[in-house]
Amino acid sequence: MSEQFEPVIVGFTCNWCSYRAADAAGTARVKYAPNIRLIRLMCSGRLDPSFVMKALAGGADGVLITGCHPGDCHYVEQNYKALRRFLLLRRTLMGFGMEPERIKLIWASAAEGVRLAHEIDSFVEEIRKLGPLNWPKWNGNGQIAEKQPIMEVTA
Amino acid sequence: MSDKPKFAMYWAASCGGCEIAVLNTHEKILDVDAIFDVVFWPVAVDTKYKDVEAMEDGSILLTLWNGGIRNDENEHIAHLLRRKSKILVAFGSCATEGCIPGLANLSPVDEIVSTAFNTLTTDNPQGIYPQTSYNAPEGVLTIPTLYPVLRTLAQVVDVDYFMPGCPPESHQIAAVIDLVVQVLQGKAELPPKGSYIGAGNSTVCDECKRTRNQKTITAFKRIQEVAPVDPTLCILEQGVPCNGPATRSGCNARCPAAGAQCIGCYGPAEGVIDYGARLITAFASVVDAREPAEIEAILDGIPDPVGQFYRFNLADSLLRANVGAWKKNGH
Question: Tell me, which fold does domain B6-101+148-184 have in CATH?
């Protein structure tokens, strides 16, 4: 293998904290790994576990879920709900034979841009160590298709 | 040949319960016989595949298909009946979402075969396994080959309607037969293609008569550990993982009415993309804890999350099969 494995990570951020943390990191020119694709939700409590499954089934190697620190939720306590969902989802994904390290939950306030950038970097390295997930694609007739390269869509 | 419209029913990877559910419509079954010419129904009439192959394409008006696609024979007949049928209905949970046979998507094929032919409970001292092809003096004998994973009917061929349930409730089957009769008489129209028929559009909870309050659960229990089960209170509220919140209505909430939790045989409710994901959301919402260690202790009460969340729906879920089932197949 000549090429280094570059993990594809999908990251879910909360509008009120971790998205702003990522934004702050950008404004402050703090670099973090470009492997992560951030998706903004209004709250970590909006995270439907099917988003995570769809990401993993569709080619992601890991999923990072972020939210406000406990007690700081803009919607009072939805981040506790996100925590419980995350723990139950992780158990379920293990039942599918996935390594539990492929999904991670971290809390980051709007002021923690530098910390979030470090967390993203270390998560990318953890997934790089685990290697590709390669969840199969089932093509039209339902047979397992070859792994398709992830199409990069740029705006 | 009679002029009556033609009817077929087939079973693939299934248990036969769907056929029994059809017979449980009692005298309604006579309507089927009066209206239709039953041209192919392996469990009830003696016809051969070659009889079906000889029919004109599109000559069967209605085919009810139960069972998932587990082997090459299932797939061959699925394509054949799709070609010969005007209306193909995925009938029952196996055809619509994989059902119990779909749980084999958690194991590689060689393990499935070895469990069936060479475990402690099987007397097979010489380790004889079935071969898919055998050279007998009279010629080559073949049996169907298992596929790595089980697929739903719609993952293999185009399906017109879906009729969920394990098995579909007999009153729902009777209602569908009535509808077909009315359509044939020009008194009703067929629903849009791809519709779920013989089922509701809501959830089992919506049909359940039990009282629901603000749910908070401090421990998940198996139903035999709850003694006695409160006859009027929501079963999930009593700590028993009940799949009602994610499951399609249509059964009149029979299990909760009888004092047992819903296990989800009617499949995902309208609009649910992944059945298990919806249940994870539902169960996580009622857990009454905020500290990770506390939450984990409560979640220990669901020892087999995949079995709990995908008992009927694994083959039709977003992830479909576990790593063990597909990794050994050269992927």
Answer: Rossmann fold (3.40.50)
Which backbone phi and psi does B62 adopt, to 5 degrees?
Answer: -135, 125
| CATH hierarchy code of domain A9-145 | 3.40.50
Distance from CA of A91 to the nearest CA of B (A): 7
Indicate the average pLDDT of chain B. 93
Q: Count CB atoms within 10 A of the CB of residue B304.
A: 12
Is the pTM of the predicted complex or chain greater than 0.90? yes
Per-residue pLDDT of chain B (331 residues; tens, 9 = 90+): 578 999 999 999 999 999 999 999 999 889 888 999 999 999 999 999 999 999 999 999 999 999 999 999 999 999 999 999 999 999 999 999 999 999 999 999 889 998 888 888 888 888 888 889 999 999 999 999 998 899 999 999 999 999 999 999 999 999 998 898 899 899 999 999 999 999 999 999 999 999 999 889 999 999 999 989 999 999 999 999 999 999 999 999 999 999 999 999 999 999 999 999 999 999 999 999 999 999 999 999 999 999 999 999 999 999 999 998 887 654 4
Enter the tokens of residue B72. Answer: 């090459």
> Could A142 and B319 be called an inter-chain contact, meaning their C-beta atoms sit closer than 8 Å?
no
Tell me how crowded residue B49 is: count the other CB atoms within 10 A of its CB: 13
DSSP track, B150-163 = EE-GGGTS--SEEE
Question: Cα–chain-centroid distance for residue B272?
Answer: 16
CA distance B64 to B75: 15
Contacts of A138 in chain B (CB under 8 A): 151, 155, 320
What is the residue extent of each domain of chain B? 6-101+148-184, 115-147, 204-300
CB proximity list for B285: less than 8 A, separation 6 or greater: A81, A84, B215
Calculate Rg over the CA atoms of chain B: 22
Can you spell out the DSSP letters for B230-263? PSSB-TTTTT----GGGBBP-S-SHHHHTTS---
Question: Which single residue is written with the structure tokens 């070609």?
Answer: B83
C-beta atoms of B319 and A135 within 8 A: yes
Q: Is the ipTM of this complex over 0.90?
A: yes
Give the Cα separation of B190 and B200 in Å (integer).
16
Q: Considering only the beta carbons, identify the residue of A57, A83, A89 that sits closest to B318.
A: A57
Least CB–CB distance from A141: residue in B156, B274, B283:
B156
Of the candidates B69, B296, B318, the beta carbon closest to that of A54 is on: B318
